[in-house]
Amino acid sequence: MSAHSSSTAAVLALVADDMREVDKVIAERLASSVPLVGEISHYIIAAGGKRLRPALLLLTCGALGFGGAQRFNLAAVVEFIHTATLLHDDVVDASTLRRGRATANESFGNPASVLVGDFLYSRAFQMMVDAGDMRIMQILADATNVIAEGEVLQLMNMHDAALDEAGYLRVIRSKTAKLFEASARLGAILAPSTPEIEQACADYGQALGTAFQVIDDALDYDGDASEMGKNLGDDLREGKATLPLIVAMQRGTPEQRATVQHAIETGAVTELEHIIAIVRETGALDVTRQAAASEAQRAIAAARCLPQNSYSEGLIELAAQLLERRS
């Protein structure tokens, strides 16, 4: 286990008991009279992952002193929304591998994956109603809508080698960071908190989610496929102009730029080794990691606005650890 993963594990240990309660809610709410719904839902949820979004909600609740049971329900809601986006994402991207094993669409087919994703979204909305709070409904409904817009925006940007950093960040803030932001904000709403503290939580979540995705995109050119549990070069095959490629085109020679541009426009991975070399030679990975570092620093600054305790220290540590992430 790397120092990074053990340190992240130490932060997540703060909410380990809470997470067991969330797991009970998840198991209970995955129940369906249609066997395939439960089978696919369990398949993807059992695949693990760090459960960062529900953990973020629980850590924020801890930092702000909220101990009510509603935090378990809403943490499960956040995980269901995330899982639904994964199911749909993998179909759109034609992905075959996630977290080191076959994606649901690879195992069960595209139609079943899309429909079970719909089930998880609608179940999440049923559970939101349980909270009996219009503000919570608004935050989650808005977040889910923004995520959907981000997915469509990304689809429109596929194979577009002219995408710039601002366009790239717009997709990330919608598609990935929005659910992190909503998760942290929900903790503040449950507490309840002042508008200033709520905004600090939202800022933390958005910055953390952005840093998380930027690092993820760097790892596509700097990671180990077996450690990461995904196929290196997937982003390129899908025609995604991620930050390492955008920077490589800005900083590379005309020949290097043409090579990267052609790969994005065609989705051809035949030149993958060459493109990885270009990304490294142009310093694009360093620039990408620096962009992630500035977002992580923004998250740390926001977390310092919260009451000082082991949970808020955990939030700071979580952001600091992203800078060490290698898988």
Automatic annotation (TrEMBL):
- UniProtKB keywords: Magnesium, Metal-binding, Transferase
| Record-listed E.C. numbers | 2.5.1.90
- Catalyzed chemical reaction(s): 5 isopentenyl diphosphate + (2E,6E)-farnesyl diphosphate = all-trans-octaprenyl diphosphate + 5 diphosphate
GO biological process: one example? isoprenoid biosynthetic process
Q: Name one GO molecular function term.
A: all-trans-octaprenyl-diphosphate synthase activity
Name the cofactor(s) required for activity, per the record.
Answer: Mg(2+)
Enumerate the Pfam families for this protein: polyprenyl_synt (PF00348)
Entries under InterPro entries matching the protein = Isoprenoid_synthase_dom_sf, Polyprenyl_synt, Polyprenyl_synt_CS
Q: PROSITE patterns of this UniProt entry?
A: POLYPRENYL_SYNTHASE_1
Alphabetical list of PANTHER family matching this protein: ALL TRANS-POLYPRENYL-DIPHOSPHATE SYNTHASE PDSS1, GERANYLGERANYL PYROPHOSPHATE SYNTHASE
Q: What does this protein do?
A: Supplies octaprenyl diphosphate, the precursor for the side chain of the isoprenoid quinones ubiquinone and menaquinone.
The similarity annotation says: Belongs to the FPP/GGPP synthase family.
Provide the protein name. Octaprenyl diphosphate synthase
